[in-house]
């Protein structure tokens, strides 16, 4: 059985937990969860949960970082992995122009588009009797290993879907328009800066960002709690990786940040995936390695470990 209910939890799991406060917290969490599920429709629980996770872990921090970069570029540049190129204006003395406003505006529009696409997909799946909703909202809660299993599959599928989609958009003439739009929009950026995780042509955004994120949820039918954890992790990744700051609290995220920087600096010819698995197999990470070796030998500011030379890690 994939999921457990509270009697199972109270009989088999809680007695094994040594801390009394942990048991109380778990019971309190389960009661809150049950009340939430009984009081609202599944669609409402999914959408409000998604919005809350996205706002707290992506939108609000990314907006604050973006405003900080604009308001105090001289201070922000100290923390930028790519120096002044990592600022929205590209220069610590530059004033924000309509281009930066356009980037931020479209990033916000795409963010809303992703939520709208999720709502439309889930409404369609709920309305058609033969189909099942993408997200499983029930009173039962998943076991930790079910959450872990789905998260691993989720990130694996998300990693490889954009790679396939990108290869296809580059190879198939039918997708030439999308490929051109992606290059004209996303690749107009010098380097990642806050909010740019969601900056692209809307169609390219849906194919390259939204679909890879939601496809594993649909096919594996994530439990709502798993989906929340997944959304929080994806939001943290997008916020930190695209902030452009070298102070990122994980070596995994620092690696993704460098791959995204290279994807932009090499005009989209390298690092189609974030975690680098498929690029390792297909050899599409070579440009970055060459660059790193060159940078290390030339001493142009990168120490080859994901941090600019001379800066604290
Ligand atoms: Zn690209």
From TrEMBL:
InterPro entries the record matches: Fatty_acid_hydroxylase (IPR006694), Sterol_Desaturase_Related (IPR050307)
Record keywords: Membrane, Transmembrane, Transmembrane helix
Membrane-spanning segments: 24-43, 55-79, 103-126, 203-222, 228-253
Region (Disordered): 288-313
UniProt entry tagged with the keyword Transmembrane: yes
Major subcellular location class: membrane
The Fatty acid hydroxylase domain, residue ranges: 177-284
Recorded superkingdom: Eukaryota
Compartments it resides in: Membrane
Membrane as UniProt keyword: yes
PANTHER family, sorted: STEROL DESATURASE (PTHR11863)
Protein name: Fatty acid hydroxylase domain-containing protein
């Amino acid at each position: 059985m994939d999921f457990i209910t509270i009697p199972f939890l109270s009989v088999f799991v809680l007695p094994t937990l040594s801390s009394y406060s942990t048991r109380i917290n778990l019971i309190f969490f389960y009661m809150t969860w049950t009340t939430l599920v009984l009081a609202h429709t599944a669609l409402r629980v999914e959408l409000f949960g998604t919005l809350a996770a996205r706002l707290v872990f992506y939108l609000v921090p990314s907006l604050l970082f973006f405003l900080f970069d604009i308001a105090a570029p001289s201070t922000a540049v100290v923390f930028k992995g790519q120096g002044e190129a990592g600022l929205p204006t590209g220069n610590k003395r530059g004033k924000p122009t309509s281009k930066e406003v356009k980037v931020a505006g479209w990033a916000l529009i795409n963010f809303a588009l992703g939520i709208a696409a999720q709502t439309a997909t889930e409404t369609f799946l709920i309305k058609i009797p033969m189909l099942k909703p993408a997200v499983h909202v029930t009173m039962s809660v998943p076991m930790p290993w079910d959450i872990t299993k789905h998260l691993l599959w989720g990130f694996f599928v998300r990693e490889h879907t954009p790679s396939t989609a990108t290869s296809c958009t580059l190879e198939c003439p039918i997708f030439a328009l999308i490929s051109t739009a992606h290059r004209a929009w996303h690749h107009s950026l010098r380097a990642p800066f806050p909010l740019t995780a969601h900056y692209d042509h809307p169609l390219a955004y849906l194919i390259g960002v939204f679909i890879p994120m939601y496809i594993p949820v649909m096919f594996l039918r994530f439990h709502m709690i798993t989906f929340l954890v997944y959304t929080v992790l994806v939001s943290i990744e997008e916020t930190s990786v695209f902030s452009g700051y070298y102070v990122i609290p994980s070596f995994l995220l620092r690696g993704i940040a460098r791959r995204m920087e290279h994807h932009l600096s090499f005009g989209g010819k390298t690092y189609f995936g974030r975690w680098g698995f498929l690029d390792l197999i297909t050899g599409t990470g070579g440009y970055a390695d060459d660059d790193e070796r060159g940078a290390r030998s030339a001493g142009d500011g990168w120490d080859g470990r994901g941090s600019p030379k001379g800066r604290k890690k």
